[in-house]
Write a sequence for this structure.
């Protein structure tokens, strides 16, 4: 409980810090809006030209896109400590102070930064979800809402796990590595669209290795009433758990890697 | 002129130093290329379009290969303005515009050439429908190369205009991000311009952003017939003149208002 209080305190302080420079903050937030907006524009133009892909129609495509944006950018808001601040901590040797404090490393790293500018990206995602939901005429039920909440939450855990891989690389090589981006951001770009339109190697990559498909697409398919791979309904609730499993595995590696941490000094 | 050339050469050498980051970048870019192609192939399988899929695939690979031509900005200037180091640059007996133009061009050229060569080799080894196809003809290739050079001049001039705005404020991240995004969309990086609605294309292809990569790529694939090539190249040259003139104007004006941060 104490940890959660600590986290909330840090978040409030960090956000207030950023709001000290309101013009810069709002310009950057607006830039994020344009950025995600143009990603959505691509979906709109694709829908305009192609109409559908396999069994997925316009509404479905907007829904998948919205699920990914909301999940990914919520994680970026709260996980900024791992992607943005952690490499800096390692490079400057400030990691030492974190290791000395009587709190978990991950807690402190997560407390160290936030990225509230991404809120507009989440907003775009929500707009896309609403459009998708209307076009696809989704009949909302409590169960479907539950599936969606679970998917977004566990999707966040999965993406946090992917960010942790990057952190592990950083511990070993001091410099942040672009290679991991291929998986994290490649996964984001690919899984804005339902995974079953991709050829087998990509499908395996995003189902078995970085399980975006299990966490986001299986529940989305259930909500849209077009189950992915025609799997039964209960899979929509069980499959997202793979995000937690993924995170747990990576977290173990992260603990191992921390033992190899060598301070850069001073 | 010699001093601009050496500014160019120094920057070129500096860019060549970061080979490790380059390999990671190439793999990342290849991944993105493959994902995009897989997506367009799936879309085409559902509803084939007038433009053959091979052209779209070639378009994607060329865009990914020359990605660094679009998105690579000179972070040094920003640091210099923040730290006050800009004062040294102002002391140089050179036109600052020319100095930064040379640096930006070197950065964009090395960045993209180093990445483009291995990527295009990789893309040419892929099976048909996934890999890059050959140019429409030899003259088409020559025209495309000429267009690419003009595109490089054009994007360097554009970048310099962004830099002129950078000078005005201490924290240009917002405006820079916006201008970059505009470039990514309107140059065809996020979605090939050839897949935009046909009525939009008539306007978008006239904008400077389309001159960077879209125009040369269309010459390469033969979407723009050879008879149209002189018109395209003239349009590119026209934009270069306009953008450079605008850039020089802005630089001269903003340069006078620069506040040198002391310390």
């Amino acid at each position: 409980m104490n940890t959660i209080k600590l986290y909330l305190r840090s978040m409030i302080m960090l956000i207030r810090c950023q709001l000290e420079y309101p013009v810069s903050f709002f310009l950057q937030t607006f830039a994020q809006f344009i950025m995600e907006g143009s990603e959505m524009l691509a979906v709109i133009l694709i829908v305009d030209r192609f109409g559908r892909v396999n069994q997925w129609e316009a509404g479905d495509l907007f829904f998948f896109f919205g699920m990914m944006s909301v999940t990914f950018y919520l994680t970026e808001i709260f996980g900024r400590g791992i992607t943005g601040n952690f490499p800096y901590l390692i490079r400057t040797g400030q990691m030492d102070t974190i290791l000395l404090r009587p709190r978990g490393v991950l807690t402190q790293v997560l407390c160290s930064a936030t990225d509230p500018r991404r809120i507009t990206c989440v907003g775009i995602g929500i707009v896309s979800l609403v459009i998708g939901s209307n076009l696809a005429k989704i009949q909302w039920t409590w169960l479907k809402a539950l599936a969606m909440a679970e998917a977004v939450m566990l999707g966040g855990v999965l993406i946090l796990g992917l960010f942790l891989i990057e952190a592990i690389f950083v511990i070993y090589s001091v410099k942040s590595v672009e290679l991991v981006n291929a998986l994290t951001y490649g996964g984001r770009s690919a899984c804005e669209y339902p995974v079953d339109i991709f050829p087998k190697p990509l499908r395996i990559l995003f189902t078995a290795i970085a399980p975006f498909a299990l966490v986001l697409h299986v529940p989305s398919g259930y909500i849209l009433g077009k189950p992915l791979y025609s799997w039964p309904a209960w899979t929509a609730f069980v499959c997202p758990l793979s995000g937690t499993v993924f995170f747990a595995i990576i977290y173990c590696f992260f603990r191992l890697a921390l033992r190899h941490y060598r301070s850069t000094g001073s | 002129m010699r001093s601009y050339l050496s500014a160019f050469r120094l920057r070129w050498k500096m860019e060549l130093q970061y080979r490790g980051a380059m390999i990671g970048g190439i793999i990342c870019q290849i991944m993105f290329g493959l994902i995009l192609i897989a997506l367009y192939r799936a879309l085409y399988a559902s509803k084939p379009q007038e433009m053959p899929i091979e052209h779209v695939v070639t378009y994607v690979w060329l865009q990914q290969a020359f990605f660094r031509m679009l998105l690579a900005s000179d972070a040094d200037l920003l640091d210099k303005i923040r730290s006050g180091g800009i004062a040294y640059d102002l002391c140089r007996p050179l036109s600052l515009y020319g100095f930064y133009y040379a640096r930006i061009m070197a950065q964009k050229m090395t960045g993209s050439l180093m990445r483009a060569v291995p990527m295009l080799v990789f893309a040419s080894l892929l099976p048909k429908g996934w890999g890059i196809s050959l140019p429409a003809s030899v003259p088409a290739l020559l025209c495309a190369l000429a267009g690419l050079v003009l595109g490089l001049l054009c994007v360097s001039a554009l970048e310099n205009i962004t830099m002129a705005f950078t000078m005005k404020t201490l924290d240009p991240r917002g405006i820079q991000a916006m201008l970059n995004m505009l470039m990514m969309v309107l140059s065809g990086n996020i979605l090939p311009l050839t897949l935009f609605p046909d009525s939009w294309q008539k306007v978008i292809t006239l904008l400077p952003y389309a001159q960077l990569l879209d125009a040369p790529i269309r010459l390469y694939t033969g979407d723009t017939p050879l008879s149209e090539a002189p018109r395209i190249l003239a349009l590119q040259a026209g934009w270069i003149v306009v953008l450079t003139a605008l850039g020089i104007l802005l630089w001269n004006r903003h340069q006078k208002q620069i506040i040198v941060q002391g310390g």
Remarks:
- The CA atoms of residues 11 and 114 of chain A lie 7 Å apart.
